[in-house]
Amino acid sequence: MCILPKAFPISCIFSRQYPLRPSTMTYDDVNHLSAKIKPKQQRVELEMAIDAMSPNYCRSKGEQIALNVDGTAYDETNTFSSKMMDKQSFTSIQATTNTCRYAAAVFRKGELHITPLTGILQMRPSFSYLDKADTKTREREAANEGGDSSQDEAEEDVKAITVRFSRPESEQARQRRLQSYEFLQKKQAEEPWVHLHYHGVKDGRSEHERQYLLCQSMDAAENSELVKTPKEYLTMLMPPLAEEKLVKPVGPSNVLSMAQLRTLPLGEQVKTLLKNVKVMPFANLMGLLASGTDSTAALRCIQQVALLVQGNWVVKSDVLYPKNTCSPHSGVPAEVLCRGRDFVMWRFTRERSVMRKEVTAIIKLPPEDVKEFLEHVAVPRVNRGWEFLLPTDAEFIKKHPDIGHRQQMLWLGIQSKLEKVFNFSKEDFGPKDSPQPEPVHVSGEQRLKAAHERAEGNKSSLQRQLDGRRAGGAVDVKREHVSDREDEPMDASSSVPNGSSNGHPGAAADHGNGGSASSQELQDFVMKTFRKHFVLTLSEFKRLLSLHVASMPVGRSVFPPISDHMLQDAILLCHCKQIMVPFPAQTTAAPDEQKVFALWDTGAEFDKHRRVLYDMFNKNYRIRRNALQVKLSQELGDVPKTDVNRLLQECCISHAGMWYLNGTLQS
């Protein structure tokens, strides 16, 4: 216990501890040379003498340390005046910042006297004298290098001085400065030291100060009777504090604590490992589990959370993408992600490598999600697509034929569901090394007959398209030209439904009774999308359409083959117009990103505000807010600021003080 002088109130009591010293080796009999305190910071420093005459003291080392610190010259500021390290310093640190649960207790004559503590300090050795030695070393090195010559000094006399005025300090910069180490050190140095006189435990002054720890007023009238139960009284003395609870550090999501992992049930251990690793052989899994784990129980657990692919276990899709979640990249629902990932895993059960474009064209999900599926279980190879991550574990399949057969039946069930969803046949994806059927020889007469049949079919199909256009009054002279070349389909990489099929804008009528329904569904999607986004590039609209198709329920019919021309015609028929944005010559935008469409007519009064904005973007690819305000005032009169804000928020994006139509800002 460190007892302070009478200048400090009895409530300012600091408990002093020496955590680096055994409790049996106290400093009570050591000569204390000096003591000082900074009360506000609760910082204490003590200097204690070292017995240089002890047989355990190395005199040569003590002299060497004193020489390094003070040098050969004698000065009043020397740390060790006796030319020998004959003292050591101790500096305090706070053991806790909240001392309301701690008190100094004195038991005397059957009475317990409790006094609250202001602070609990731990005294640790201070080696600040070594900093002084380093400073002297640097000074000696600077002196050895020599001073500047007179010529250099003359040059410095005529050196120009640049005057700079500091900018006003922002609030954010001020907060950083107040939390900086340099500022905190400066604040600590501002509080002056208060020098103390140390009195030992057995000293009479210490005994006098300890009397203040006893309650001076023992009048029964002032003391209330204790009516609490022992449990309630203990709760009052030491109330539970939520802030005192230690929070375990949260590690990265891909880092597992094996010690904590092995405290979980076996099923949770297997699930956690597979969820983090994604794919692993069964032998590796047993190596990560605790020694002595039953392999039969582990096999039972792993079949609940993983599927067998090429003899290795791959975590199930519904474990990675639980129900009611969505993709962090594109927002696609979890059930759609599970179907797409199951297709990727099924492909790897039939072959070692798959092509990313083939997978994307079938499952019609955004490229970011497809890439994530492949990165879980495969690695990219040059000119070979994505190859399965691990070699085939033939030993496991040979050792557990019953599990292999059971997993094969599961994959057959998954395959039948995937065939219905994605409309493919397993023969479309036969193994690369499977025997190919013998080539069929077709005679010249058969080829000529097939060509005539194709020509007649194309002719009748084209005639139906032209009849449909004339009936609808939307005849395009440029597209009526009969040619052997059909419209160019959309790029399959954009993940638009059935983008690999060709077709004219009127091809929807080529699908029998379902053509009109599909066309109406497409127009409904266009209207719903543009009423939400107002302005879209063609590439962005194709992305939204892909997400819409991917989220359709299982078994629902999807859109027919759709080309870029069909999409543009559908957009223009839904009260939208194309904005001819004059992009700069050095633009890096793709052709689909330069085709900008905007909602033109909704029947609302606010449509005329949008038309003014669209007219400005027909003349420039970016505008300023004040220019839009002036244009609106000229065309529509006084326009409130809220209407301008709404117009810009609905249709534009801001960058560097300029406004661009949505989707037209180039990074």
Automatic annotation (TrEMBL):
One of its GO terms (cellular component) is RNA polymerase III complex. Residues 431-667 form the DNA-directed RNA polymerase III subunit RPC5 C-terminal domain. InterPro entries: RNA_pol_III_Rpc5 (IPR006886), RPC5_C (IPR045576). It holds the Pfam family RPC5. Residues 133-157, 426-520 are annotated as: Disordered. Residues 133-143, 444-457, 466-484 have a biased composition (Basic and acidic residues). It comes from the Eukaryota. One of its GO terms (biological process) is tRNA transcription by RNA polymerase III. Transmembrane segments: none annotated. Residues 492-503 have a biased composition (Polar residues). This is DNA-directed RNA polymerase III subunit RPC5 C-terminal domain-containing protein. It comes from Gasterosteus aculeatus aculeatus.
